Amino acid sequence: TRSLLGLKELSQQEIQSILDRAAYWEQHPSKTHNLLNGKFVANMFFENSTRTRTSFEVAEKRLGAEVINFSAAASSVEKGESIYDTVRTLESMGIDAGVIRLKPVGMLAEIAEKIQVPLINAGDGNNEHPTQALLDLYTMQKHFGTVQGLKVAIIGDILHSRVARSNLYALRKFGASVVFCAPDNMRAAELNAPYVSMEEAIQADVVMMLRVQLERHATGMLKSAESYRASYGLTVERAQQMQEHAIIMHPAPVNRNVEIDSELVEAPNSKIFPQMANGVPIRMAVVERALS
Ligand code: CP
What we know:
alpha/beta; Rossmann fold; 2 domains; 4-stranded parallel sheet; 8 strands; about 40% helix; about 15% strand; binds phosphoric acid mono(formamide)ester
């Protein structure tokens, strides 16, 4: 199958071919195509989402697929049905591909081994978020022409971030250098990237801020929003010290005035909303790849 479970195992060529196909779809902006007419794609979200779920739906509809939006909260998951049994149920009804977001790390790989239809990872716990990193790479390539040689600083809650992991795996394959910046209790010991000070991080070509993921925190991890902002937030003052050519990125949702000042979200050097726009052609390329 043409599943996409993560970027760790994908080659640079495979990733580039997805980015190239996304560029094709961006250059062919007519609202709908009939490439996937008659194909059924199920979006199965066992964790909340705005951007990923909606942009997959837009992407699938633009390709002409039939879309089934499965919401765990309104399903028999509430009666205790497992994620595996839920996916198996939809497969037995004849879906052609599934997009899935879930919390438990490792479960997606297990399910993918038992399921025949291709599965696309829309975020699994703190493991990977491959389509987010693809749209991030796409955004960087579009802005800088190439990712090779870029210095990318990923700042914030690295410990809980699947975005940091997928970006680290992919950016390295493309010859970018990745540094992290995080308070001690938000670092991920198993990831092999150097931690730098905030002063150094904001000198990178790409300043990628991460959301403080309060819903995944043990109590007491964040002393206060104000103290976090003071030490690790991209404030207006810090943004003024960035290089002229540098860009701000953030996967969103954003905690305004915690990890990034509200005024910076739509600043001229911010790619936060362009990242979301780029999510559609990226997901068109990924869904097409799964079904072709
Ligand atoms: N960036 C991202 O994955 O956003 P959602 O959680 O809203 O999908």
